[in-house]
Amino acid sequence: MAEPAGKRLKSSLPLCRAHRSSAGSRARHNLQAAVEEALCGVSSLLWDGAYRLKALASVFERDDVALPRVASFFHQEALKQEEEAQAMLGYLAERGGNFCTKDIQKPGCEAVLAVLPALELLMLQLKEEADVLVALSQLARHNGDPHTASFVKSHFLSPRTDRLKLIGDLLTSARRVGCTSDQTGGFGEYMLNELQEELTR
């Protein structure tokens, strides 16, 4: 039994306010409107995250910061994020749903000029996205869509655990070598850039 049109479950999911349902789509199969809207909102969240990571990568490419391996690491993370967003959009299209594009906002990381706050921001972003993906999986199960719940768990949540562990290790290493939260990171940031093998994976 479907929910009344005006009623929404309380959740932390980023919903697409201007979403236009694909109720008339011939490819649509067992995709509840709430799940479709949540998939659309989560896709937008993943795209925003990729944009933020590209902005962070550009910080470390600047001539006054010049940490090329750190910049490369953030570029690689941005590519992973874009691949996840593409996979989410592909799944939404496969199920017969619509994706609503929205305006690109500023990434909100203009004040980040050092490795330690950049890694902390990445850790916060990944944790927030993991929470949202768990909520999406629960919403899908609540709406009788185990396929979406399984897809989210296998394609997004499981790989995210490894990424969170890697970022945690990098944060620990950054603190050990003396990276600071201000722009004068100095020798600690240089050591992290030169010696941390995880930056080149």
Number of strands: 0
Shape: elongated
Largest sheet: none
Low-confidence stretches: 1-9
Give the structural class.
mainly alpha
Helix content: 55-70%
Number of helices in the DSSP assignment: 5
Whole-angstrom Rg: 19 Å
What report would you give on this structure?
The chain has 201 residues and is an all-alpha fold. Helices cover 61% and strands 0% of the residues. The protein is built from 5 helices and no strands. It has helices at 33-59, 68-94, 115-142, 146-176, 187-195. Helix 1 runs antiparallel to helix 2 (68-94) and helix 1 (33-59) packs antiparallel against helix 3 (115-142). The termini are far apart. Residues 1-9 have low confidence and may be disordered.
What are the key terms here?
201 residues; disordered N terminus; 5 helices; mainly alpha; elongated
Q: In a few lines, what is going on in this structure?
A:
This protein is mainly α.
Q: Secondary structure elements and their pairing?
A:
Blueprint lengths: L32 H27 L8 H27 L20 H28 L3 H31 L10 H9 L6
